[in-house]
Write a structure and sequence with these properties.
By secondary structure, the protein is an alpha+beta fold. 61% of the residues lie in helices and 11% in strands. It is built from 10 helices and 4 strands. The protein has a 4-stranded mixed β-sheet, with helices on both faces. α5 packs across α6 (115-140).
Length: 229
C-alpha cells in the first residue's frame, strides 16, 4: 500500500528539525515521489543539507529516522553546506532540477550553474553510460544493470532537452511527448523495462546496442561542441 506522503513528510521533518535544530538548512524530495510518479514500490528519496556533517551526525540521523514507518524505503542524499557548494557542477545540474524543496531554499546553497555545466552534465552522463554499457556486454551480461543504465539515460535526456530548449521537464511521463524520436525510443524502452520486473522480455544485446550507440553519439556531439568553444 502506498504511503500518505503528506502526513509522512510532516513527521519526517519534525524528527529531523528536533535532531539538528538550526543546523538544518534544507530538506528536499527527489525521485518518483518528487515527480509525482511514485507507486507502492518507490523509495522515499530525501535530501538533507546541514551546516556541516560528521559521521556522528549520520549515526544520529539513522537512529532518528528509524523511528518512522517505512524506514526501509528511505534513501537519498545528506551533505554539509561546504561540500555541496564545492560539488561537481555536472552532478549539481541534475541534483538541483530534480529536487523539490520541503524546507529552505536550495538555490542559496549552490554555486551558480551555467550553460557549460548543463553541457558537462550531458557529457558526463553519456560517458558513464557508454563505459558501463560496454563493460556489461563484455563482462556482466546483467539485464538489471542494463535497466539501470536506461534509467540513467532518462536523466541525460532531461539535461539534453533543457540544453536545447531552456525547459526542464521533471516528470518522465511528460518528457516522452517532447523529445526527438531518437530519445523517445529510449524513454519508451525504459518504461517497458519498469513494467517487466523479471527482465524476462529484455532483448539484452539489441537494447544494449541501441543504448551504446546513442551514448557514443551524444559523447561525440557534445564533446565536439566543447572543443569548438
Amino acid at each position: 500500500m502506498q504511503i500518505n506522503l503528506e502526513t509522512w513528510i510532516k513527521q519526517y521533518i519534525q524528527i529531523v528539525k528536533e535532531l539538528f535544530g538550526s543546523r538544518l538548512l534544507f530538506v528536499g524530495l527527489q525521485g518518483s515521489y518528487g515527480r509525482g510518479e511514485a507507486d507502492e514500490k518507490s523509495d522515499i528519496d530525501l535530501v538533507v543539507i546541514l551546516d556541516s556533517l560528521s559521521i556522528d551526525d549520520l549515526k544520529a540521523y539513522d537512529d532518528a529516522i528509524s523511528k518512522l514507518s517505512d524506514r526501509d524505503k528511505i534513501c537519498g542524499f545528506i551533505s554539509g553546506k561546504q561540500e555541496l557548494l564545492n560539488w561537481s557542477k555536472a552532478d549539481l545540474f541534475q541534483f538541483y532540477h530534480d529536487t523539490t524543496p520541503l524546507l529552505g531554499d536550495l538555490q542559496t546553497l549552490l554555486p551558480r550553474l551555467s550553460r557549460e555545466d548543463n553541457r558537462s552534465a550531458i557529457q558526463f552522463g553519456a560517458c558513464n553510460i557508454y563505459h558501463l554499457c560496454g563493460h556489461n556486454v563484455v563482462h556482466e551480461k546483467d539485464p538489471g544493470i542494463l535497466k539501470s543504465l536506461y534509467k540513467g539515460a532518462v536523466f541525460v535526456i532531461q539535461a539534453l532537452f533543457y540544453y536545447q530548449t531552456g525547459i526542464y521537464i521533471k516528470k518522465h511521463s511528460d518528457l516522452i511527448a517532447k523529445v526527438s524520436p531518437r530519445e523517445k525510443k529510449l524513454l519508451k524502452t525504459y518504461s517497458e523495462m519498469k513494467r517487466d520486473a523479471s527482465g524476462q522480455e529484455i532483448n539484452f544485446y539489441e537494447l544494449s546496442r541501441v543504448l551504446f550507440d546513442w551514448a557514443g553519439q551524444i559523447i561525440k556531439e557534445y564533446g565536439k561542441e566543447e572543443n569548438e568553444n
